[in-house]
């Protein structure tokens, strides 16, 4: 709060300029109106609006505090003088402006107290996906929209992400229902690819009425893409092989078996299949084809023959054998160390007992006198 005296002849004016106050619409605004150190007979409460217009709102008798003359009807029932303050209840957007209390003193002296009021309207925030699900390979598309509606002053809206490859189009316009408030819309554009599927994007709305001055909402995009090349792997040393593929939606896996020039299948919707007699040379050239499809073209496939799978079975079998041997050796080594520790401990105990026995043997009492007569 800044105080300044202006003296002209025998007249003096004391300006007390307050800070700018930001109040939510519907709440209460209060400002110091009567300076206890410089009080005259009456106070004029006036406003300078945003367009520069000045007018007196009310006149208040400081001697007879019950006498207040209201000059602007929109403040009737809402404006009250309470002790040294003036209070406006249920503030509205039209109440924006620079408020001034002029305390008329004796000999024409005046005290002027000023406080600027800015009425805030908290935005309504909506965040949603657009054109979902997106499909990989499409052109640049609208992916999501973040909107801060009916705000005063206009909110700032922006999209951010870790990949920093997004494009945002932001538009601010007056609300159609209430021209005193504003709508701010930020639209996220992306070029749909597999990379963006399930990627988080953050919409941040900045406005003085929000807690900590900002509000953030995270969404995850849904981008559909065709299946990846299937991966076929041997499960264990038996006869099972597994096929898996990545995609959105999750691909359906089917198997086709080419055995001695005949086709069997697709057999099941499972991702695993058991080879037919893999150690029988008759089936060494059997081919197992894994197909992956999810409705997004192109479909993909991968194959493996029995003769290609057998070496992998053998590798896994030997690996399992070595693992078992390693476990047995490790267990035996631990047991040997335990037995060795017990042996050392028992030997040390025996030595301690012998030492104690030898020390106590020399302490037996002998007679000092021969009592034989």
Structure in words:
- The structure is a single chain.
- A seven-stranded mixed β-sheet has the order 1-2-10-9-4-5-6, with no helix packed on it. A four-stranded antiparallel β-sheet has the order 11-13-16-15, with no helix packed on it. Strands 23-22-25-26 form a four-stranded antiparallel β-sheet.
- The chain has three domains: about 1-120, Immunoglobulin-like, CATH 2.60.40; about 125-225, Immunoglobulin-like, CATH 2.60.40; about 230-310, Sandwich (Immunoglobulin-like).
- It has one helix spanning about 305-360, and strands at about 1-10, 10-25, 30, 40-50, 55-60, 70, 80, 85-90, 95-105, 110-120, 125-130, 135, 140-150, 155-160, 165-175, 180-190, 200-205, 215-220, 225, 230-235, 240-245, 250-260, 260-265, 270-275, 285-295, 300-305.
- With about 375 residues, it is of the alpha+beta class.
- It contains one helix and 26 strands.
* CATH class placement of the largest domain: Mainly Beta
What Rg is obtained from the alpha carbons, in whole angstroms? 45 Å
Assembly type? single chain
- Biggest sheet, spatial arrangement of strands: 1-2-10-9-4-5-6
CATH topology description of the largest domain: Immunoglobulin-like
Strand proportion: 35-45%
CATH homologous superfamily placement of the largest domain: Immunoglobulins
Structural domain count: 3
- Helix vs. strand class: alpha+beta
Q: Give a quick account of the main beta sheet: strands, pairing sense, barrel closure.
A: 7 strands, mixed
Output the number of helix runs: 1
Q: Roughly what is the average pLDDT, rounded to an integer?
A: 79
What coarse outline follows from CA principal-axis ratios? elongated
């Amino acid at each position: 709060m800044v105080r300044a005296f202006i003296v002209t002849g025998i007249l003096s004016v004391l300006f007390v300029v307050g800070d700018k106050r930001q109040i939510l619409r519907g709440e209460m605004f209060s400002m110091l109106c009567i300076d206890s150190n410089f009080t005259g007979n009456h106070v004029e409460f006036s406003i300078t609006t945003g367009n520069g217009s000045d007018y007196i709102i009310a006149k208040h008798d400081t001697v007879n505090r019950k006498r207040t003359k209201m000059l602007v009807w929109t403040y009737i029932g809402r404006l009250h003088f309470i002790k040294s303050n003036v209070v406006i209840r249920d503030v509205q957007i039209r109440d924006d402006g620079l408020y001034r209390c002029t305390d008329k003193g004796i000999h024409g002296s005046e005290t002027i107290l000023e406080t600027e009021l800015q009425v805030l309207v908290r935005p309504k925030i909506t965040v949603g996906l657009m054109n979902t699900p997106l499909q990989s390979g499409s052109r640049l598309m609208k992916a999501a929209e973040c909107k801060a509606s009916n705000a005063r002053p206009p909110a700032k809206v922006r999209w951010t992400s870790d990949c920093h490859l997004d494009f945002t189009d932001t538009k601010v316009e007056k609300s159609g229902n209430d021209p005193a408030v504003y709508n701010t819309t930020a639209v996220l554009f992306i070029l749909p690819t597999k990379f963006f599927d399930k990627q988080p994007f953050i919409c941040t709305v900045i406005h003085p009425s929000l807690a900590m001055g900002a509000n953030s909402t995270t969404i995850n995009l849904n981008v559909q893409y065709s299946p990846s090349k299937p991966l076929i792997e041997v499960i264990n040393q038996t006869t099972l092989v597994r096929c898996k593929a990545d995609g959105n939606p999750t691909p359906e896996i089917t198997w086709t078996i080419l055995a001695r020039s005949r086709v069997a299948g697709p057999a099941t919707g499972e991702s695993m299949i058991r080879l037919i007699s893999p150690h029988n040379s008759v089936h060494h050239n059997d081919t197992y084809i894994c197909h992956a499809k999810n409705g997004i073209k192109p479909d993909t496939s991968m194959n493996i023959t029995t003769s290609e799978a057998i070496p992998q079975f053998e590798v896994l079998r030997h690996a399992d054998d070595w693992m078992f041997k390693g476990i047995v050796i490790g267990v035996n080594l631990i047991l040997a160390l335990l037995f060795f520790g017990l042996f050392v401990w028992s030997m040390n105990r025996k030595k301690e007992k012998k030492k104690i026995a030898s020390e106590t043997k020399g302490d037996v009492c002998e007679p000092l006198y021969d009592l034989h007569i």
